[in-house]
Design goal:
There is one protein chain. With 348 residues, the protein is an alpha/beta fold. The protein is built from 13 helices and 10 strands.
Length: 348
């Protein structure tokens, strides 16, 4: 499908305006000089709602669908420091909906970062010790909570995102829109990117970028798009991305995208949410060169992959690179001691 066709398909979906768009796109002059490439940053950390980040784009379509269906509440689940849950809490407030969050944790975690914002935004919180958001137990907890809502006369909208779900397709649509936006910005700047790097958690963001990028006439049609896995690794995430691609193409009436998704496993480290030396070094470099603040869970690891590929010659001198800064800024406060140690170490 061509660009206008995708844009028209997106326009037919219910949408709640939440994000400040388009987000900035500009050349990082100091980092470009340091790395020997033309490095452009797409500032999706600046989407505006409740500290912004990539989840705001997804929430526009999810909350739009919930409102169109007459929902009175939103119910979802993720990690205790989830950016998605924080954005859902804010989006629900904007749309006049109650928000209920099932967080993976004990409930005894320090109230800081995203968890603090969940409280400030008035979300109702429950906690689960099940580490798997895709387990039957987790799904059962969500459905049980929804049943309680219905029994009390409410109309809950359960946001259970996976590749084959309607919610997953709507979440991915947010990044199809982002891809069209980025293409227009590349065209205006007369930029044709050779590489694009983005953090990958569930896989919906990279799926949306790919669907928008690979259409006829796009400035991103030949771009090497690299997803940097920060949680589950490529054997798990790869099939999920394919599912997001399939269901979102169906939602938008687009042709299926048959492409091998490039996923980088080498930056995750010990586990999801555990900072790595490479990520901390990438955070220090970005802050020191551009005043660009990254976090140790998502964007720090994605930027570390970019730096590693430059150092190894995978990204050649003089090429054009886009870094998709997907945000997650409240996470820096949840990792305050770890991040402060970067500066202490640099001083010695």
């Amino acid at each position: 499908m061509n660009g206008p066709g995708l844009a028209n398909a997106l326009d037919r979906l219910p949408r709640q305006t939440l994000a400040s768009l388009p987000t900035p796109f500009g050349l990082a002059v100091n980092l470009s000089d340091r790395l020997g490439v033309d490095l452009w940053i797409k500032r999706d950390d600046l989407t505006g709602l409740a500290f912004g980040g990539n989840k705001v784009r997804s929430a526009e379509y999810l909350v739009g669908d919930a409102v169109a269906r007459g929902a009175t509440s939103l119910i979802t689940t993720a990690a205790v420091q989830s950016n998605f849950c924080r954005v859902t809490a804010a989006a629900g407030r904007r749309a006049g909906l109650r928000v209920k969050l099932l967080l993976r944790g004990t409930g005894a975690e320090p109230v800081q970062g995203n968890l603090l914002l969940d409280h400030m935004l008035g979300a109702e919180l429950k906690f689960t010790d099940d580490p798997d958001p895709y387990s039957a137990h987790t799904r059962g907890r969500l459905e049980s909570w929804a049943a309680e809502e219905r029994a009390a006369g409410g109309r809950p909208y359960v946001i259970y995102i996976h590749g084959g779900s309607p919610a997953g397709a709507l979440a991915t649509a947010g990044y199809v829109h982002a891809s069209l936006e980025l293409d227009a910005q590349c065209r205006a700047a007369e930029v044709r990117p050779d590489h694009l790097y983005v953090a990958v958690g569930s896989g919906s963001t990279i799926a949306g970028l790919l669907l928008g990028a690979r259409r006829e006439g796009s400035r991103l049609a030949e771009t090497r798009i690299v997803g940097v896995c920060v949680g589950a690794l490529s054997p798990v995430v790869g099939p999920r991305v394919k599912e997001f691609l399939r269901t979102t193409a169906e939602l938008l009436g687009s042709a299926p995208l048959d492409e091998e998704v490039r996923l980088e496993d080498g930056q995750r480290g010990e586990a999801y949410g555990v900072p790595t030396p490479a990520a901390l070094d990438a955070i220090r470099i970005a802050a020191g060169a551009e005043g660009l603040l990254l976090n140790p869970v998502y964007t720090g690891k994605a930027f570390a992959a970019l730096l590693g590929d430059v150092a190894q010659g995978v990204v050649r001198p003089g090429t054009t690179v886009v870094f998709m800064n997907t945000g997650g800024d409240p996470l820096v406060f949840a990792y305050a001691e770890t991040l402060a140690a970067i500066r202490r170490g640099a001083a010695h």
